[in-house]
Amino acid sequence: MSWTARLTASLPMLNEVSAWPEPHLVVVGGFLLPDYQSFVGPQAVADLDAISADVAVVGCDGISAADGLTTPHHLVAEIGTIIVRRARRTIVVADSSKIGRRGFTAIAPIASVHTVITDADADPDELKALRDSGVGVVIAQC
Fold first, then answer.
1. Which residues form the domain of 132?
2. Distance in angstroms (rounded) separating the CA atoms of residues 73 and 104
3. Strands 68-71 and 105-108
4. d(CA 96, CA 22)
5. 31-82 pLDDT tens trace
6. What phi and psi values does residue 47 have, to the nearest 5 degrees?
7. Is residue 1 in some structural domain?
8. Domain holding 79: CATH number?
9. E strand or H helix at 71, and its extent?
10. pTM listed for this prediction
């Protein structure tokens, strides 16, 4: 039997995955930011710095070919940066409202992203720019 660990700093993901049979979920510690439903701070950073992942699935508040992944909160950005850095492959899940948006704090450059999953309402020009940057784009059927 293959064992796959899942790691999260996200409270909603903790709630979701904990309902799965045999979830094998590792949760990072730290300070909970209620507005972001995410654990941040030195403990979360240390926990994440100690792992390596084959695939990271991350969210963001904005993604563009020019500015990469961004968010308004610097502590959330720090966690995202480490997750992307520690993964061999990064998948970004972002609804169409986030495609082409630029946030205040950088998480990672677009060169760190392998695939973006979004919806059919995303700006086609920005999707083309992402593809031209070497990012795979998947339009989810909702």
1. 6-139
2. 7
3. antiparallel
4. 33
5. 999 999 999 999 999 999 999 999 999 999 999 999 999 999 999 999 999 9
6. -60, -45
7. no
8. 3.40.50
9. strand 68-71
10. 0.91
